[in-house]
Amino acid sequence: MSDLNHDHSFGQDRKLPGENRTLVVILITALMMVVEIVTGMLFGSMALLADGLHMASHTVALSITVFAYVYARRHSHDARYSFGTGKVNALGGFCGAILLAVFAVMMAVESVIRLANPVMIAFDQAVVVAVVGLMVNGICVLILNHRPESHHDHGPIHRPQTGYPDAAPCHDHNLHSAYLHVLADALTSFLAIFALLGAKYAGWVWMDPFMGIIGALLVSRWSIGLLLTTSHVLLDRQAAPELRQKVVESIEKMGDGRVVDLHLWAVGPGIYAVIVSLTTDRPNSPQYYKERIPSDLKLVHVTVEVTRT
User: Fold this and answer.
1) Residue 71 near residue 187 (C-beta atoms within 8 A)
2) Which of 59, 84, 158, 182 is the most exposed place for a label (fewest CB within 10 A)?
């Protein structure tokens, strides 16, 4: 039975650098969120309030991301998870996307109300706060500075089925999502500044709530994109055709077997499991075919079924 309980942590027990960086960004974003929401209400700026609500949505989403990091790490060796806890990150992202959609609706509704019932805006104060918000978002972008991270930063990860070290770069999708969050925040802050200046110097008072609607559309688009990408992981959607083709070609390259069934799906950020069925008139051991698969494909759990033609 000990052989049946081999490790399925697949590197999820390691603390990724993105976790600490995301925590710092959460603290900064949450502080600026409070400032923008309060000043937006005091100065009557919907664009500023929308930016604050946008930051609130990102604070919640980033908090879920950190929770996913911690939960995945602490339960990485829990045998109840058949393929490890890598999908916890996708589940956290899915929940965050739903919250983003709720915030987007709130922003859009409030903006429409402000279009129908304009309010007085303290432009100078609102512009100052919006500029500070843009600067804060820029700092957060620099802190996250997303780039692919190699597993060699924390030691090699060995595939349980093959023993090969996985040396390929692995994208931290949680960190990448956080990076996109703050980029969207920076763009929304810019829209708020543009709207306030337009209203102050050109008399386009309508632009302030209109930019609130634009901000809501930006959040909605991000939410939809995140829902799609995370749902693909949660529903075990097949991996990209290019990756599947590489697996098939690596097994069939010697001409002594033909792949008749292939299931290749993500079990965590940048890592995959695969089940391959092949037929051959000269059957060999499953390990023989596993060793043909390149070690840089990030396959952490490989199952091969061999049948004689």
Assistant:
1) no
2) 158
Cβ atoms within 10 A of the Cβ of 182, count? 25
* Residue 31: other Cβ atoms inside 10 A: 13
> Is residue 145 classed exposed, middle or buried when 0-12, 13-18 and 19+ CB atoms within 10 A define those classes?
exposed
- Decide which of 296 and 162 is more confident: 296
Instruction: Order across the sheet with 299-308: list the strands.
Output: 258-268, 271-280, 299-308
pLDDT score at 173? 63
pLDDT score of 7 = 60
Longest dimension (CA), the chain: 82
3-state SS of the chain is: CHHHHCCCCCCCCCCCHHHHHHHHHHHHHHHHHHHHHHHHHHHCCHHHHHHHHHHHHHHHHHHHHHHHHHHHHHCCCCCCCCCCCCHHHHHHHHHHHHHHHHHHHHHHHHHHHHHHCCCCCCHHHHHHHHHHHHHHHHHHHHHHCCCCEEHHHCCCEECCCCCCEECCEECCHHHHHHHHHHHHHHHHHHHHHHHHHHHHHHCCCCHHHHHHHHHHHHHHHHHHHHHHHHHHHHCCCECCHHHHHHHHHHHHCCCCCEEEEEEEEEEECCEEEEEEEEEECCCCCHHHHHCCCCHHHCEEEEEEEEEEC
- Locate CATH 1.20.1510.10 in the chain: 2-234
Say which CATH architecture domain 2-234 belongs to. Answer: Up-down Bundle (1.20)
At 110-157, the pLDDT tens digits run 888 877 776 666 667 777 777 887 888 888 888 877 554 433 333 333
Contact 210/195 with Cβ under 8 angstroms?
Answer: yes
